[in-house]
């Protein structure tokens, strides 16, 4: 018996329960939906390429964040009833997409073509939760990936007296070990074989909390002993600890100030390979297996990588070209139209880039505070900005009092008059920072162009390019003293 998509849908409710709870037969996307995009930005790119040839559906409702949105129970049927599914293959960016891809590649590979808009784009590794991204200001961002960070910091005697320190599994948000005086509690630190544990830290002196990460102390570590393949990669406010082979070892956690070690912890026992199913995640996302979906080359990127390449108008062009190329392979009869449509949209994105570059070139300073999750790392990279955020990549992150205080310090240190806030995060944190910082005169809304609201559509700038041009660019101009 030949199984159609509809028959398979009706027969696999239990298999898809992790995504949808249960499946129904409503299929709201309907057979008319040729392509489903996993969120607004990709629906914009896909519609730009298809033009009037096909119907493209945005999976995420208007006004909802594409990043952390939870789907309704009929989402999987809607996706698999379309011919094409467009997404960003960075695992953890849209958790429901990870689950949908598993289902599609297992049960519907012959029915749904997959298009990874980020394929081949070199994504930036996210370098901290709530800390600035300082781009093109003479700082070397060389993390020596795959090498042990056993730096020579000179012979200076440690000068910081740390009363206690906790190491935190950043994927779970839970402390795993802590040290008091000359010993650790809760050791050993368990590292999954061929995986990575992303470790943050919280420390205190007799005077109070220690600021770890820029502009405070850098968190580093050196290996005392261990199996082959035990490696530590330092990222300022956190460490990535990985191991290729099972075995025992020890590391010494350090706090570093201006390239000098100011404090060292007692040796911490490390075990690679014991309990790696529970011990940690691959670069902090809770996925111990380093799998890839290899069907048609549509793989996931593992690790703490920022998927939002599209805030950079140049990289957005690459996303559009990726979609164009895959649609041509899927539907070669319309190749000429896809080529023409994509070329026209790429020209618009190039014009947007030139507007940003020109508008931000003559600015008073490079520093921006965004009081929300970090949506503009790629924009900062492109135009040489330093963006400080009190939270990380997820819109569900809530800044702590320490995060807000550090942001206020950053604002006052640089004499910033404006605090930006993401429409989809809301203004509350920005208003709190503005109330506490002596230099701030106003807060300004920006949009990462990941979603849309009716108000913007009615105003004529609800599209992706319109949001960046009419909302975000003027906000950055004002914040940077460029207008």
UniProtKB/TrEMBL annotation:
<dbReference type="InterPro" id="IPR006127">
    <property type="entry name" value="ZnuA-like"/>
</dbReference>
<dbReference type="GO" id="GO:0046872">
    <property type="term" value="F:metal ion binding"/>
</dbReference>
<feature type="compositionally biased region" description="Basic and acidic residues">
    <location>
        <begin position="282"/>
        <end position="306"/>
    </location>
</feature>
<dbReference type="InterPro" id="IPR050492">
    <property type="entry name" value="Bact_metal-bind_prot9"/>
</dbReference>
<dbReference type="InterPro" id="IPR006311">
    <property type="entry name" value="TAT_signal"/>
</dbReference>
<feature type="region of interest" description="Disordered">
    <location>
        <begin position="272"/>
        <end position="306"/>
    </location>
</feature>
<protein>
    <recommendedName>
        <fullName>ABC transporter substrate-binding protein</fullName>
    </recommendedName>
</protein>
<dbReference type="GO" id="GO:0030001">
    <property type="term" value="P:metal ion transport"/>
</dbReference>
<feature type="coiled-coil region">
    <location>
        <begin position="335"/>
        <end position="362"/>
    </location>
</feature>
<keyword id="KW-0175">Coiled coil</keyword>
<feature type="region of interest" description="Disordered">
    <location>
        <begin position="129"/>
        <end position="156"/>
    </location>
</feature>
<dbReference type="Pfam" id="PF01297">
    <property type="entry name" value="ZnuA"/>
</dbReference>
């Amino acid at each position: 018996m030949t199984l159609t998509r509809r028959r398979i849908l009706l027969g696999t409710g239990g298999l898809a329960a992790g995504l949808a709870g249960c499946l129904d037969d409503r299929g709201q996307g309907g057979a008319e939906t040729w392509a489903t995009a996993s969120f607004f930005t990709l629906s914009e790119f896909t519609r730009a390429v298809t033009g009037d040839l096909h119907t493209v559906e945005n999976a995420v409702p208007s006004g909802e964040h594409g990043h952390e949105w939870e789907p309704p129970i009929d989402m999987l049927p809607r996706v698999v009833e379309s011919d094409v599914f467009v997404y960003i293959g960075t695992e953890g960016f849209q958790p429901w997409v990870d689950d949908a891809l598993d289902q599609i590649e297992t049960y519907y590979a012959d029915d749904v073509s997959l298009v990874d808009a980020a394929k081949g784009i070199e994504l930036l590794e996210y370098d901290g939760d709530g800390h600035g991204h300082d781009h093109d200001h003479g700082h070397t961002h060389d993390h020596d990936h795959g090498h042990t960070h056993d730096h020579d910091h000179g012979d200076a005697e440690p000068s910081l007296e740390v009363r206690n320190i906790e190491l935190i599994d950043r994927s779970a948000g839970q402390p795993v070990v802590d040290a008091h005086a000359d010993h650790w509690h809760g050791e050993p630190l368990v590292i999954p074989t061929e995986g990575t544990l992303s470790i943050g830290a919280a420390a205190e002196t007799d005077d109070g909390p220690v600021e770890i990460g820029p502009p405070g102390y850098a968190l580093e570590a050196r290996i005392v002993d261990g199996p082959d393949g035990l490696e530590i990669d330092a990222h300022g406010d956190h460490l990535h600890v990985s191991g290729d082979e099972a075995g025992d070892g020890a590391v010494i956690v350090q706090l570093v100030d201006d390239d000098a070690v100011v404090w060292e912890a007692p040796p911490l026992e490390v075990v690679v390979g014991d309990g790696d199913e529970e011990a940690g995640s691959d670069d902090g996302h809770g996925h111990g297996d380093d799998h890839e979906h290899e069907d048609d080359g549509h793989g996931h990127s593992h690790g703490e990588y920022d998927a939002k390449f599209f805030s950079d108008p140049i990289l957005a062009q690459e996303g559009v070209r990726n979609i164009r190329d895959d649609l041509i392979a899927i539907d070669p009869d319309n190749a000429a139209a896809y080529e023409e449509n994509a070329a026209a949209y790429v020209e618009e994105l190039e014009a947007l880039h030139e507007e940003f570059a020109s508008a931000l070139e003559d600015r008073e300073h490079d520093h921006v505070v965004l009081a929300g999750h970090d949506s503009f790392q790629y924009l900062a990279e492109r135009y040489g900005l330093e963006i400080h955020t009190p939270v990380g990549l997820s819109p569900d992150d809530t800044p702590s009092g320490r995060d807000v205080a550090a942001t206020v310090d950053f604002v006052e240190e640089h004499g910033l008059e404006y605090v930006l806030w993401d429409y989809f995060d809301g203004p509350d944190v920005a208003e709190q920072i503005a109330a506490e910082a002596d230099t701030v005169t106003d807060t300004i809304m920006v949009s990462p162009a990941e979603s849309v609201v009716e108000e913007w559509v009615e105003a004529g700038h609800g599209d992706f390019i319109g949001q960046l041009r009419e909302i975000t660019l003027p906000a950055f101009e004002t914040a940077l003293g460029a207008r």
